[in-house]
C-alpha cells in the first residue's frame, strides 16, 4: 500500500537536512517494495505461504524545481556522492495522521535539472530501509 503525504503536514529530514519550502502540488510517497507474503501451490493442491520480511521501500519526493526543498536535496545528493557510502538517514513525521517513519535511505534517481524548468515539478527517487514506524 502506498502512503502519500501532504507536505503541509509533513516534517521530512534526510541526512540531517530538514526539507522545507514545498510548493502547491508537491507530494511525498512511500511504497513497500515487494509483497509481504508469497504463496506457491504444489502439484497435490497444497499451498505454502512464506513471509517476506522486506522493509525496503520506494520513496518519491515530488518538488517544484527551484524551491528551497529542491535546492536542499541537490546539495545533499552532491555531498553524499562525494562520500564512500551514499547511505544517509531519513525520517518522516505526518503531523496530521500522527505517523512517523525512520530508517536509512539512498538516492536512486535524482530530479531533472534542465534549464528553464523553474515552476515545473520534478520527482526525486530514493530507496529506504525503514526500521521503525510509529502510529499514535
How far apart the termini lie comes to 19 Å
List the helices and strands in order. EEEEEEEHEEE
Unreliable stretches (pLDDT < 50, length at least 5) are none
Number of helices: 1
State the helical fraction: 10-25%
Task: Name the structural class.
Answer: mainly beta
Q: Per the principal axes of the C-alpha atoms, what is the gross shape?
A: elongated
Q: What is the rounded Rg?
A: 17 Å
Descriptive account of the structure:
With 136 residues, this protein is mostly beta strands. The protein is 10% helix and 51% strand. The protein contains one helix and ten strands, in the order βββββββαβββ. The protein has one helix at residues 68-81, and strands spanning 3-5, 10-14, 17-19, 27-32, 37-41, 47-51, 56-64, 88-94, 99-109, 121-135. An eight-stranded antiparallel sheet has the order 1-4-7-10-9-8-2-3, with helices on one face. Strands 5-6 form a two-stranded antiparallel sheet. A hairpin with a 2-residue loop joins strand 2 and strand 3 (17-19).
How does the SSE layout of this entry go?
Blueprint: E1 3-5, E2 10-14, E3 17-19, E4 27-32, E5 37-41, E6 47-51, E7 56-64, H1 68-81, E8 88-94, E9 99-109, E10 121-135
Antiparallel strand pairs: 1-4, 2-3, 2-8, 4-7, 5-6, 7-10, 8-9, 9-10
Amino acid at each position: 500500500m502506498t502512503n502519500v503525504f501532504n507536505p503541509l503536514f509533513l516534517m521530512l529530514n534526510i541526512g540531517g537536512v530538514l526539507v522545507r519550502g514545498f510548493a502547491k502540488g508537491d507530494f511525498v510517497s512511500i511504497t513497500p517494495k515487494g509483497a509481504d507474503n508469497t504463496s506457491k501451490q504444489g502439484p497435490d493442491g497444497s499451498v505454502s505461504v512464506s513471509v517476506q520480511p522486506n522493509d525496503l521501500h520506494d520513496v518519491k519526493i515530488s518538488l517544484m524545481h527551484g524551491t528551497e526543498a529542491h535546492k536542499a536535496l541537490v546539495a545533499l545528493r552532491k555531498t553524499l556522492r562525494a562520500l564512500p557510502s551514499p547511505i544517509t538517514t531519513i525520517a518522516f513525521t505526518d503531523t496530521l495522521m500522527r505517523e512517523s517513519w525512520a530508517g536509512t535511505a539512498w538516492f536512486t534517481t535524482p530530479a531533472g535539472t534542465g534549464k528553464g524548468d523553474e515552476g515545473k515539478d520534478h520527482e526525486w527517487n530514493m530507496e529506504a530501509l525503514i526500521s521503525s514506524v510509529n502510529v499514535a
